Records
---
Amino acid sequence: EAGVTQFPSHSVIEKGQTVTLRCDPISGHDNLYWYRRVMGKEIKFLLHFVKESKQDESGMPNNRFLAERTGGTYSTLKVQPAELEDSGVYFCASSHPSSGSPDTQYFGPGTRLTVL
Amino acid sequence: AQKVTQAQTEISVVEKEDVTLDCVYETRDTTYYLFWYKQPPSGELVFLIRRNSFDEQNEISGRYSWNFQKSTSSFNFTITASQVVDSAVYFCALNDYNTDKLIFGTGTRLQVFP
């Protein structure tokens, strides 16, 4: 079974440009999460999809970040326009549909974003 | 507020030594889940263990063991007879039962030298 995949693995952009990150969850996983780790700090939650619906987007830093999950399969996270403080590693995770208790989240390899 | 603290930023050991990574958590929930993830140099987060708040039995998996103590709000991770391949950043995390999101500690970087 394929794990969570993310593309690209690295992205270097100039301040003010746009970047789109992609995440393909494990097949059959309805839950999809985005997290971010800014250098040296903890990994922080950004948002949670259940199928194509945003269940919780309380961690999204501001309206420069837009996440989508059309059709309930893969998800994209767009940053427009990018700022220096957006640099970090963006992780995607997925889990089975919940059945009362939270299931284990399986993570992808992350996308390292550098904004110059 | 919920919080996970990993006070050890970096630990260095020599191969075959035992090492314990500390994790202390804060939550007001009576039902919660705790996790450990490993991040090797390749970058991905690898799931190691999931423990719910009602199960205080210690767990052993090969050279890995976990000690969950609700009385001290700790969920410590011990690697016995460490190996170079154990070198990684280890994250402890707490699941927010209401929202399903994970709350992570800042991680502990373990370096095992030959």
---
Amino acid sequence: SYELTQSPSVSVSPGQTVSITCSGEKLGDKYVCWYQQKPGQSPVLVIYKDTKRPSGIPERFSGSNSGNTATLTISGTQSMDEADYYCQTWDSSTVFFGGGTKLTVL
Amino acid sequence: QVQLQESGPGLVKPSETLSLTCAVSGYYISSGYYWGWIRQPPGKGLEWIGYMYHTGNTDYNPSLKSRVTISVDTSKNQFSLRLRSVTAADTAIYYCARREAYCTGGSCNSVWFDPWGQGTLVTVSS
């Protein structure tokens, strides 16, 4: 099995930059994607293949992955970005999700 | 635009079988992609259940593999989930989703899910 670890919560002020991390053994050797889930809604893909943004996702969302840590960065955070964020990877034909990080925009 | 919609009973008794269907619109399942299920217990994180290609290839979460069957009905453009011998721990919102992948040289090294259905809450209780 493989474990992805995320901090339970992070907070940011509007307009600031926030980083949400996801750690796992040699995670940089795998591809990571990120989902945003707002209360009562389905998850939405915001980053795939470490750094790629799907169409319709704002440029303020970016991703990186190196070593044991993948990072989702939101620049110029807006109140609408308040949500839970989940990382996900794939290894040996198995999908693994991180536990999720609750982002609060204060 | 691809859309997915889950349907099925919202209440299942312990030890019985949970059955859900995901109707796909805007894309023919037989044209490609894997189609899968993910669940989320109330207030908790996401758990992958499994996915299936229209030709029958499947991958399941090892922790659920003994109880799960995913099947595809291309004539109805839908796919289904069956989870046997359920307990209260199987209470969750169940999502269906299309699996996308990055594959090179005949092997894949990245998968992700997009889009997702709206989800359906299934409660296991007598």
